[in-house]
Amino acid sequence: MNRKARRSSRRSALNRRAGQSLSMASEALQVLREYLRPAASRARTYSDRFIGPLGSVISPLGFAVLGTTVLLWILGAVFGWQEAVLGAFMATVLLLAAVGFILGRNDFSVQLDLHRTRVAVGDRAVGALQVTNKASRSAAPVMMELPVGHGATAFRIPRLATAQEHEELFTIPTQRRQVLNVGPVRSVRQDPFAILRRQVKWTETYELFIHPKTTGLDGSSAGFIRDLEGMPTSDLSNSDVSFHALRDYQPGDDRRHIHWKSTARTGQLMVRQFEETRRSHLALSLSTNLEEYSEAHAEEDFELAVSVAASIGQQAVAEQRKLAILTQEGPVRTDSGRMMMDGLTRIEAAPVLRENLVDVVRHTADTVPGASVVFFLTGTRTSAKALRAAWMHVPAGVRAIAIRCESGIEPTRSNIGELTVLSLGKLDELGLMLRKAVA
């Protein structure tokens, strides 16, 4: 037993010593970390101040040439290789020559003018780049770059005398709906071998909105948006625009509503009574789930659905109707026609989403409880069962119209219960299909 006790006590002592050693090592590491933290912070500061700008000037080829130059100098000095020394000398001369190409500065006044910052798909987006030499001496020719989206366009600016101007016109393609970042305009100096490259920014970045293509509905919405007075309800009101009947005057009634002809005929004060009206409130549920659109050209069909939403939205804004547009990403701002089109331009489809059309319609019903007309905008891969499930979330008495988009199909109209289902193949057919929907 004594031997076992001694072994146990010896083992406990070893564990205590190991724990103390680990604790001391941890404390030492903590002290070392606290000591090195200011040094690391200073190193990051120096890196951002010196190495960062250096990296923006030296190209990958330049770093390769610089590294090769240093290596050749070391080999020539250590091993006495004349070939290495000669190669290092030539590489050094090449680097010094490249430095000469990027030296110097320009004093320009650069203006980037986009004729319109909002255009529709297919419209011309034109702009102008104006460069003025503000220096007291002539400016050497320089290359100006204009980034547009993920690409860039280069303009060769010739030699400019003092106060001389040079203007370049350009056109931006607008084949697809998107938001393009245009600018900043930057002057570029680089050597012929692109070892060193120096850029100077002259303007800010501008956003060019390429709105979805739309079609005019020409009042075809009048059948389902109702008239200007909205939809009469069974609730009576003392002040509205939908006349209901006459009743006896009661103390407190507005004298402006007294019907004097009936009062003179009956000998008693009679006042008008009205029905409360419900202003038309349009709600659009736009699905961004590409799995609900045709497998062959899902993105093209989705663009058609966005154009349908934009066309109906523009008609609602023109008629001063309340409008709400919701997608899986959330609501689109519809405070004005411009905000609505900008929001629809920013919408992007996703190949796989957990939420489908049914979820969007449910969110729409919860967000816009006072809607009078609800549109479902989706693709042809949305089944009739899914459309019925989405329609079940629409409150009773609300008109629901589903528009299934697939490029090139023949337009058709069908019904699932009280839900009107339209299949659309071309944007130009939207007005005719809406008129058939309310016929």
From TrEMBL:
InterPro entries: DUF58
UniProt key word Transmembrane helix: yes
Keyword terms of this UniProt record: Membrane, Transmembrane, Transmembrane helix
Transmembrane segments: 50-78, 84-104
Origin superkingdom: Bacteria
Pfam assignment, any one: DUF58
Domain DUF58, residue spans: 246-330
PANTHER family noted in UniProt: DUF58 DOMAIN-CONTAINING PROTEIN, SLR1927 PROTEIN-RELATED
Protein name, entry field: DUF58 domain-containing protein
